[in-house]
Write a structure and sequence with these properties.
GO terms for molecular function: DNA binding; DNA-binding transcription factor activity. Keywords: DNA-binding, Transcription, Transcription regulation. InterPro entries: cNMP-bd_dom, cNMP-bd_dom_sf, Env_Response_Regulators, HTH_CRP, RmlC-like_jellyroll, Tscrpt_reg_HTH_Crp-type_CS, WH-like_DNA-bd_sf, WH_DNA-bd_sf. This is Transcriptional regulator, Crp/Fnr family. The protein has a four-stranded antiparallel β-sheet. The protein has a four-stranded antiparallel β-sheet with strand order 2-7-4-5. The protein has a four-stranded antiparallel β-sheet with strand order 9-10-12-11. It is globular, with a radius of gyration of 19 Å. Helix 6 packs across helix 7. It has two domains: 140 residues, Jelly Rolls (Sandwich), CATH 2.60.120; 81 residues, Arc Repressor Mutant, subunit A, CATH 1.10.10.10. It contains eight helices and twelve strands. It is α+β, with helices and mostly antiparallel strands. A hairpin with a 6-residue loop joins strand 9 and strand 10.
Length: 227
Amino acid sequence: MIKDSLRKVPLFKNLSNDVLKDIASVAKERIYKKGNIIISEGNKSNDIYIIKEGKVKVYKTSSTGKNVILDIKGSGSVLAGTTLFSDSLNPATIMTIEDSLVYTLKNSDLENLIRNNSDLALDFIKILSNELHNSQEKITNIALNDTYVRVAKLLLTLSSKHGIDSNDDNTLKLDLNLTREELASLIGTSRETISRALSQFSKENIIDIKGREIIICNKNKLEEWLK
């Protein structure tokens, strides 16, 4: 049931069953195949999107046609939240990087629910605040840290959101399929630069690289790069 699935979404976890039923009654379930565009930069969104299963990349396109990835989002993420209470256009494009199951809600329906439910309003504010905090952290990382620290922080951030645990708490597999260029754009560097950093981490047995697959073999040692 949609209601039971919505309960697992951070935005809705504190709501009563009655409110969840109201949300489920207006929510639509939609499947997006890998490579589908959910939201296009510069367009107006009339819906808000919540990822139940799958992953997406958020990116902007430069004047030269280059795509710069801003973030990777997965299960439980809310998309297009920043345009909910305004007439602003989508600041970025959102594309699936794997088959994804997404719930959609009309902005007008969610606005009405928020007006009538303080818990939902508070949780939505928390999500937007977290988005702002993450953006500030990323800007700080790019502006103040050297390449190796930026790469280490990127790997740790991605592993916390998209890592698959092993029997060893110090080992994580990144459940992503990103090219070196896509990884580089997440921290504002070049493919060659991030490849050198990954190669160095591999030599130090901090990570293991198999094609696009990255396994963090020594999380503690990777964290030492941030000190």
